[in-house]
């Protein structure tokens, strides 16, 4: 278990915050959240999500930061260091396996974005109806050659950045991509807000209608509060292991939570006013981005340019998350050896691509291959989202509160910060008692044990 050298630390505070925020701000915030909010009452769902994020996601994020910075080690070694001669390091293995599987199918969606971006730039996406866009999307994802090539390009971009290391790779890319993402989002929000009838979209997003908030939506918001912040897979343990002691963990964590919530709001502001302006329904489901939004942009002056901008920011968000997924594995294999990092990144990236091929083909040649009515893509998604991530989050919350001494936790949180004893006591209570119970509820829900509530 080697200590990380100074050169393998983040070069700046903002570099770490942008990289960690980039990890959290992925397809879930821009793609999944709007359509789930669209089917779950809009503003009511958003409000519940924010409450859960602050009370549960934020404390757990700090917990992962404590493990990583205190040990200055990769995900597996960190748990071994804090709890030697125990099986707690399995938590790190769960995170690595989850990220490996996650990136194998996440890269498939990343490939779809690349294909759409190519078509948008070449002018092939203009002037179609919503039905035609739906048919185009179906044809595109079922084409084995195009989707595999695009998936490989997405993985290749991820490998190239991560192979360059923390400062020269992930931090540099994040410093470019994250500000660009926010600027593009603000541009889209401004355009969306100036459309006739946009006020209805604002009402949908910000005026809670609790009559539409089902128990299923509340449970989903609870799960999203954890998983939209990249929690449960020790990614944040790995990223925080490159931190120095001068950085405030509570401040860094709240910055990431706020940025993530801000992007969720921006996604809603960019999408819902435009949808309501054109009399469409906000509950289009997963095809919202690929089949509904192109129609909206078709009706806007310079809409093709705005849609290209949206796809670029969508790609940036997907890539910054992909960086963190592969980094947790690379860090555990390379052990801070620069030469090993390059070869390890390429080897792991190629393996992830190969493992992801069946998921990529799940919408075409392997569409009929199903287990329990689930395609290979769906099985991979279910395994990570509904089993490995909740299990990892539960183990991390228990590990922080049971295996690390309270004095050690308090001292680590005070490094670079001026937190009060009251703040620490509230945080410790939330991560020791509230978070594990909440995660268990999510776990029971996704495994079907709470179906009677729905």
TrEMBL record:
The keyword Cell membrane does not apply. GO terms for molecular function: symporter activity. It holds the Pfam family SNF. The chain crosses the membrane at residues 12-31, 43-67, 87-118, 148-166, 178-199, 219-242, 254-280, 300-323, 344-367, 387-405, 426-450. It is a multi-pass membrane protein. InterPro entries: Na/ntran_symport (IPR000175), SNS_sf (IPR037272), YocR/YhdH-like (IPR047218). CDD domains: SLC6sbd_Tyt1-Like (cd10336). Belongs to the sodium:neurotransmitter symporter (SNF) (TC 2.A.22) family. This is Transporter. It comes from [Anoxybacillus] calidus. The lineage of its organism: Bacteria, Bacillati, Bacillota, Bacilli, Bacillales.
């Amino acid at each position: 278990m080697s200590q990380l050298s100074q050169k393998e630390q983040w070069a700046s505070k903002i570099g770490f915050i942008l990289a960690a925020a980039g990890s959290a701000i992925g397809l879930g915030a821009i793609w999944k959240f709007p359509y789930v909010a669209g089917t779950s009452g809009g503003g009511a769902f958003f409000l519940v999500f924010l409450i859960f994020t602050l009370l549960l996601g934020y404390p757990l994020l700090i917990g992962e930061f404590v493990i990583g910075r205190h040990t200055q080690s990769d995900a597996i070694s960190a748990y071994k260091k804090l709890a030697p001669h125990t099986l707690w390091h399995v938590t790190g293995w769960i995170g690595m396996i989850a990220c490996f599987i996650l990136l194998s199918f996440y890269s498939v969606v990343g490939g779809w974005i690349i294909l759409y971006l190519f078509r948008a730039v070449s002018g092939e996406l203009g002037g179609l109806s919503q039905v035609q866009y739906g048919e185009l999307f179906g044809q595109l994802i079922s084409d084995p050659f195009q989707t595999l090539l695009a998936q490989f390009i997405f993985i290749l971009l991820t490998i190239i950045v991560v192979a360059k290391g923390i400062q020269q790779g992930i931090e540099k890319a994040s410093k470019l991509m994250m500000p660009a993402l926010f600027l593009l989002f603000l541009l889209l929000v401004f355009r969306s807000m100036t459309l006739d009838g946009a006020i209805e979209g604002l009402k949908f997003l910000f005026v809670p209608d609790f009559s539409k908030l089902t128990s299923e939506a509340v449970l989903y918001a609870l799960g999203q509060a954890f998983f939209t912040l990249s929690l449960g897979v020790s990614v944040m343990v790995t990223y925080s292991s490159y931190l120095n002691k001068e950085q405030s963990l509570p401040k860094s964590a709240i910055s990431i939570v706020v940025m993530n919530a801000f992007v969720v709001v921006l996604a809603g502001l960019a999408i819902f006013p435009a949808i309501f302006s054109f009399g469409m329904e906000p509950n289009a489901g997963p095809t919202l981005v690929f089949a509904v939004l192109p129609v909206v942009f078709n009706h806007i002056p310079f809409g093709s340019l705005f849609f290209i901008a949206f796809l670029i920011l969508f790609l940036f968000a997907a890539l910054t998350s992909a960086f963190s997924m592969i980094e947790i594995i690379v860090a555990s294999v390379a052990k801070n050896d620069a030469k090993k990092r390059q070869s390890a990144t390429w080897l792991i990236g190629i393996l992830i691509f190969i493992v992801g091929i069946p998921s990529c083909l799940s919408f075409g040649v392997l569409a009929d291959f199903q287990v329990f009515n689930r395609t290979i893509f769906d099985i991979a998604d279910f395994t990570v989202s509904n089993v490995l991530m909740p299990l990892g989050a539960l183990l991390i919350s228990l590990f922080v509160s049971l295996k690390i001494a309270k004095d050690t936790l308090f001292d680590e949180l005070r490094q670079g910060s001026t937190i009060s004893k009251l703040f620490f006591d509230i945080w410790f209570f939330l991560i020791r008692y509230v978070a594990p119970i909440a995660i268990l509820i999510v776990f029971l829900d996704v495994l079907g044990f709470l179906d009677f509530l729905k």
